[in-house]
Amino acid sequence: MNTRFSRQAWAWALYDWANSAFPTVVSTFVIAAYFTQGIAPDPATGQAQWGWMQTGAGIAIALLSPLLGAVADAGGRRRMMLLACTLLTAIATGLVWFATPEPGSALWALACVGIATVGFELGTVFYNSMLPQVAPPERVGRLSGLAWGLGYAGGLACLVVALLLLVRPDPSPLGLDRGAAEHVRATALLVAVWMLGFGWPVLVLLPDPPPPRPAWGTAIRQGVGEIGALLRGLPRNPVLARFLLARLFYTDGLNTLFAFGAIYAAGTFGMGFDEILLFGIALNVTAGLGAAGFGLLEDRLGARRTILVALAALLGLGLGVVLAEDKGVFWALALALGLFIGPAQSASRSYMARLAPPDEVAAHFGLFALSGRITGFMGPAVLALVTAATQSQRAGMATVLGFLALGGAILLTVREPRR
Predict the structure, then answer these.
(1) What is the pLDDT at residue 211?
(2) How far is CA 74 from CA 68, 186, 365, 370, 390, in A?
(3) pLDDT (tens digit per residue) in 309-335
(4) Cβ atoms of 157 and 112 closer than 8 Å
(5) Which residues in 93-103 are b (16+ Cβ under 10 Å) and which e?
(6) What letters, b where the CB count within 10 A reaches 16 and e where it falls short, cover 372-405?
(7) Considering just the CA atoms, what is the radius of gyration of the chain in Å?
(8) CB 194 within 8 A of CB 18
(9) What is the rounded average pLDDT of the residues 275-293?
């Protein structure tokens, strides 16, 4: 059997390298921590405000992703829509540069990150829908795992560049003013350039179907009809319906974990920006190894079993992370937890790729995004409410475990799709 991937497959996988800089640097490790530590009046208030921003973004993504996925199917414009989302994400991220370290910049920072988050998540709908186009069914899991591993490597590389070029040097070789937090704010500009600089191959090597294509108005009408038919047909497709319901909960837990991991580490263990970056680098190493390693096993183990193994490990290690009082113990458990983050996501993507009919793949990945976002406001909202009520970041972070457990319990009732 040929074990090589095509140029198109590598171009597709490289986009994970490009766009993973955003969740790594902006949503998780640097800008999120900068907001709570440098802009918000105090870490607990910052965590709550960040939670409400993520809630609003989640609602927008839930409303838009299925419809736009169906429109992409009907109009044959996945590449154009991926380009638009990539540009939106990069531009909004770059504008975070203007969020100075003062409470008056909070609204600007939240608006920029919220818009960028919507663009990023909508872009993944069109990106993920290209997976069946570049890999045969028996190799979908391997390619998805490879791409997710490249994503963590890309996030790691971007963090290293941010650390060595922007955050750590004092004085800055670029003349950045540390008093105005320019060394931290410049990481947003780095992410914008990173996404555009590495994201172009998929847009060149994976063309849309040749014309003629329907006009936008026709594509929208057809897309609305397609997504309506999919939703009405869910009760007759219990495997897809229960998988989407399970993913609804465990992805909500994972997204909340990503959004608040660095905020929790900074507030609970007093990590500064340098240590947060080092923590992010180490976590990306273990996460990348886990995604790539499980990708090699997934096509034999099965996507569903891979997800269940990952969720079980995340629950056990996550409980230890929440209970940890010692920073060294926190580091060890968090790095071990990283091994199972990637497999849960990568196997979910390949599971959906196996379930989706070829002519409805973007619409199905729109539902896939919907299942990760329709209750996307719940995880951040519950965390924000518990944090605000208890004034405890530890109590707020513990709510993530409930979402992971509920999603895993529902997934136990879903059977593996035939290949």
Answers:
(1) 62
(2) 10, 40, 14, 18, 49
(3) 999 999 999 899 888 888 889 899 988
(4) no
(5) bbbbeebebee
(6) bbbbbbbbbbbbbebbeeeeebbebbbbbbebbb
(7) 20
(8) yes
(9) 79
